[in-house]
Amino acid sequence: MMKDEVTTPCDSAHAPQTDLVQKLQEEFAGIALDPSSNGSDVCECDTANAPMPITAIPTERPENMILFGGAITCSFPRRYTDVSDVREVPNNQEAFVDANRDESFIVELLELKENVTDAGSARWFLEDLTVEQASENSLVVEEENSVPAANVPNLDANTTVNAVIGTMAVAKGRQGPEASNVVRVYLANIRLRVVGTDILVIVYEPLVISEHSESAQAVGAGATVPALQAGLMPAADVFKQVLFTFNVHDWSLFGSANE
C-alpha cells in the first residue's frame, strides 16, 4: 500500500522493544490535532524538565502545491521535494521528502474500504500499514479522533475525516531490524464515499535515528533536532496545514485513480 521511501519490512522479533517507543511517546507527548498553527504557537512548559528549550520560530512558510496534475492542491513547505523527480512513484500517490531531516509525506488514493467503519478508520489504516512493515509489535497509538469540518474547510462539511498519531520502530530501504528508526506517523483518512475513494494523508517524522540506519549519514544518529530549533515548521503543523488547505478541483480524478 505504501511507498518504500520510508520503511521496509523487518523482523519484529528483533525490532526495538515497544517500551522504547512508549518512553519516547511520553517524552514527546502533547501533539494536538487542532487547526494549523503555521508553526507559530508558543508552548509553555516546565523548563526544569524540558530536555531542550525552544529558541527559534519557523522561518519557512507553506506554499500552495499542485498534486495529481492540478486535480488536488494543498499547502506545505517547499523543503519537501517531489520523490518522482528521482524515482518512479505509483499513479495513485504523490510523495515528498525532506532528505535533510528524513521527513516525508504521502497523499494516496485508494479504493474505498467498504468493510471499514467510519469510526476509527484512520487507526485501521495505520494498523494495516504497520502490518505491511512488520512494525505492529512496536506501534503505540498516541492520539485518535475525528477531524472537525473547520479543520478541513475546503471539503464538504459532511465528509468523514479521521486522524491518528502513532509511533513505531521501522527500518528503511532494504536494511535489517538492527537499523530500525523510531518514527512518529501522522495519518488522516478522508472518506469520499460518493466517488468510492479513501484518501490517505501521511506524514512521517523520525524521532530517533539508529546508528546503523542509512539515514544516519545525512541526519546523524540519535534523537533528531526539533524542527523549531532548526527554524522549520514542525511535522505536526505540516500535517495540519495540508489538511486545512486540502482542496479537490477536478473530481474526474477519482474515475481512474483506483484502476
Automatic annotation (TrEMBL):
- This protein's UniProt keywords: Protein transport, Transport
- Top-rank lineage group of the source organism: Eukaryota
Provide the family line.
Belongs to the MOG1 family.
Q: Which GO terms describe its biological process?
A: protein transport
Protein transport keyword on record? yes
Q: Which Pfam families match?
A: Mog1
Q: Does the keyword DNA repair apply?
A: no
The name this protein carries in UniProt is Ran guanine nucleotide release factor
Lineage here is: Eukaryota, Viridiplantae, Streptophyta, Embryophyta, Bryophyta
